[in-house]
Every structure is written in C-alpha cells, then in structure tokens.
Amino acid sequence: MGRLRRILFRNQLTTIGTFLTVATLVMAAFAPWLATHDPLRTNVRNRLQPPSVENWMGTDEAGRDIYSRAIYGARVSVRVGYAVVALTTLFGLAIGVAAGFYHWLDGLLMRSMDALMAFPSIFLAIAILAALGPRESNVIWALTITLTPSTARIVRGVVLSLKELDFVNAARSLGAHDLRILLRHVIPNSLAPLIVQSTFVLGVAILSEAGLSFVGAGTAPPTPSWGNMLADAKRYLFVAPWMSYFPGLFIVFGVLGLNLLGDGLRDALDPRMRGH
Amino acid sequence: MTTFIVRRLIVTIPVVLLVGIAAFLLVHLTPGDPADFFLDPDSPPEEIVRIRERLGLDQPLPVQFVRWFGGVLRGDLGTSFHEKRPVIDMFARAFPPTIYLTLTSLFLAVVLAVPIGIFSAIRQNSALDRFATVFVLIGVATPNFWLGLLLIQLFAVNLGWLPAQGFVRPEQGWWPSLRTLILPSIALGYSGAALIARMTRSGMLEVLRQDYVRTARAKGIAEKRVNYVHALRNAFNPILTVIGLAVASLISGSLVVELVFNFPGVGRLVVDSVFRRDYPVIQGSLLLIAGITIFVNLVVDLLYAVTDPRIRYG
Hints:
The complex is a heterodimer.
Chain A: H1 2-8, H2 12-29, H3 31-34, H4 66-101, H5 103-118, H6 121-132, H7 136-163, H8 166-173, H9 178-215, H10 226-235, H11 242-269
Chain B: H1 2-28, H2 45-55, H3 61-73, H4 87-122, H5 127-141, H6 144-158, H7 174-208, H8 211-218, H9 223-260, H10 266-276, H11 279-307, H12 309-313
Helix pairs in contact in B: 1-3, 1-11, 4-5, 4-7, 4-9, 4-10, 5-7, 6-7, 6-9, 7-9, 8-9, 9-10, 9-11, 10-11
C-alpha cells in the first residue's frame, strides 16, 4: 500500500494525473448522485440558455442540462475505455506471447499486426462500424482491433528479451514447459509495461470514442457522450458557444489525467525509460 | 544501398497483401449479402441471382479476392453503389483537399515542434522546457475536432478574420485557398506537433548523454557545434520515426477535422459512404489510405539509411 501511494503520488504531475483519473471514474460511478438534472429530460422553453445558477454549464438545443449530460457522458468514456483496455491486453498478450515463443508463427502474426497498423485507426474503426453498425459494443470491438497491435508488439518484445536470459533457460532445462514459463516469468515481467500501456490505450480509446461519436458513428443520441454532445454543439456554434466548451474540457482533463498518470507509472515501474 | 532498398521493398509485399485481404474480408465477412446493397429490399429472387452472377458473388471467396485485388493492382477500385461512378474518379476529386490539409498540418507541426524539442532538451528544466512540457501535455490530450470548434469560434465568429467552413481550391487563387487551410491545419497539426516535440526532446536527451558527446565536449569543441553537429545528427532517426507516425495520425485525424470545417476531402467522402453503406468507396479508401501509410513508412525507413550509414550495412 505504501509503495502504491509512493507511485501514484510520486510528484506533482503524477498526483494531478491520479486525481483527474479518479475524478473521471467517480463521475461515471456516481453520475445519478452528482447530476443535478435528468440528462435526457428535454425542456424546450429553457433551450440554449447560457450557464446560470440553475444550469451550471447552460442548456442545449433541447433544453437539457449540459452539466448533467457531461457527468453521464463520463459513463460512456469509462465503459468503452476500460473494456478496450481489457480486450487489447487479453489479445495483445495472446498474440505477443505466441509470436515471441513460437518462431514459426512470428512472421505471420507480426506482419498481420503491421497490416492492421497501416490503417489509420479512425479510418479502420469507422469502416468496421460501417460493417457492424454504430453501437457501443461495436465501438469497443473496432477500437480493440485498431489498438491491439501496439500491445502485442510490447509483449512480444518482453518475451524475446526473456528468452535470452539465463533464468528462463535454466527453468527450461529443468523441464519447465511453455505454460509454466508463461505464467511464472513472461506475465509477471510484462506487467509493468502493460500497466503503462493501459493508461495510454485508455487515453487513445477515450479520444477515439469521442471522435467516432462526433462524426455520428459512435454512441447514438440521446445517450449523452462527450463526442455526440460536441456534434450537437457544432450545429449551434454561433448561438450557443458554451455547448462546445464543457464536453471538450471533460475530454481534455480525462485524457490529460491518464497521460500524466501513465508517465508517472512508467518512471516508477521502468527506470530505464526515465526522462523520456 | 540498393540491396537495402530491395530487401525493404520485399518486406513490404506481404504487408500490402495482408492489407488487401483485411479490406476485402471487412466487406465480405460482414452479416448480409453484398448483393443486398445493389438492390431494393423487395426485388424478385431472379434479380438477386442475376446481380450475384454479375458481381461474381457466386464464385468462391479466394477467386473473388484474386479478381478484386487484380483489379486494384490495375487501378480499378470498382464502382460506387451510390454515385454509379468509378471509385477512383471520386478519389481524384476528394484527395487534393486532404493532401493539402495533411501537408500544411505536417509543415506547421514540424516547423514548430522540432525546434521546441531541440531547445527544451539542450536547456533541460529551463522556462522554455517547462513551456514545452505543458504544450505537449495539452496537445496530446486535446481532441482535434474540439480545438477546431474553438478556433472557429475565436477566429471566424468573434474576430471574423478567417472563413469558418469549406475549402477553396488553389486553382481559384492561392491566397483564398490558404485562408481556408489555416484553421483546419492548426486544429489538425497541434496534436502532431505535440507528439513530434516530445520525441525530439527525448531523442535529443538520449544522444546528449552518450559518451561521444562527452568526448566532443572534453576535446573543447564549442557547445553549439557539439549540440548541432554531434548530437542533432544522431537524434535524426527518432525524429524521423515520429514524423512518420505523425503522418499516419494526421491522415487519421483529417477524417474528423474535415467534418468540423465541412472540407470536401477523403474524410467527408468516407463518412458519407459509411452512412450510405457504399462499400466499394469504403473499401477503396481503406486501401488507398493504408497504401499511403505503408509508403510513408517505407520512405522513412529509406531516409534512415541515408542519415545513418550503420543501417545500410547492418
């Protein structure tokens, strides 16, 4: 516990990162208690109102409370972000281990990852969504497919460097089979880079979800997400600029927090990378 | 050098093939029959059979793939379902705006970010370095489309200096054209600039710690010469790598930024095609965009060999 605290609050920037990341999680978890209004309740007589005591961040084109919608919007970002992290870690681990361990699979797997990386992520995600239909679960799959290659590369690198080390050779010559080496050596040694990678995958997933929702291929209205709130804001840019300020700030703070936390974790867990 | 280029080109072939397979499968493994997209939902069954034959959908998948990919290699990307025009013609129209946008963004990003990265590494922990850190942190976290909305509000709505929407083609005058490019390029280029500045700084720091830099200093070579000749030259490769990565992320980002500024580019074309379920256009754009990314990576790798002779003979 003491060690974790030292890592999460190791310096000012990391502390800010931890705080912002936890704040986003708290918003998502306690949205019904933090929101002041029903995020879906329309009130046409109160439409396009600037920020006030009643509506802290103003109202949108249907008179809905922007503050409450932004709080609920955190739920989409957190759900999509953490699901993508879980899935990319799972697939990245499987593909990276297979490529690192079995030489005959390496070429095929890594060239396939190269091919996936050749598609710019938003383009690939939007094409996948075109095929599967714009739904939250499909956003998760699309982002998983685009983000798995980088995780797989990291795991493969760890496996390849471990294979050369004496203690792994010793374990192997003592008769340890692949599964044992995987569980006892590869996974524990991949943990640090994977945790760091997770914070960056989360950040990219949140930005990409927002982008996809902004172009109309992600979270469908009326469910509020930061991206589709900004899509609404675009149509009222001239009359209600506040509609665009707040959802954007939530995205920036959420992603900034994850990046700061990720930098801190990397410095703490992987001293070789310090200062980068 | 020639062997290096040839070897590098050979590695690219399987990737291109896999990209083709991925783009092909995306359409052919999705639920539903591609023939449906050509037809009204209530066409008679004979009509469906006829269409399937005409499209070659009655052939086994590998045969279909070879036919389609063969066409692609000859420059035939198929015909748009919606516009009934060759996909390649639609690209010829949509590509230039996207290319201009990507290039101006890249130019802005490189011109801004490389000096920031170099100076913040040379003067580590100075005020400039702290400014660079904030610049990078905010740049990486800011969605380009949101930045676009803010820029429109400030420079188009409030100040009225620049147009908020659309693109003027350079044929209609370069100044009006450039004016339409400024805001989208800033919106798109900022995150790329942040990425490049970050990598330039860390690449430069890494090099400044090397023994040969210390030796150069110890020999009494002027600080400027050490920094700009001994160090910078060796920091080129990580900078090149990240510029290559930035091009890919700029192309990806252009899709969303084009929508913010109603830009008639590839992004607009792809998004419209998605909503019309116009598969040949989606497939073709995926292929072209992936092809460009592969090409950029190839150029970056070849430039490595130019800037770093060790790679050529490695």
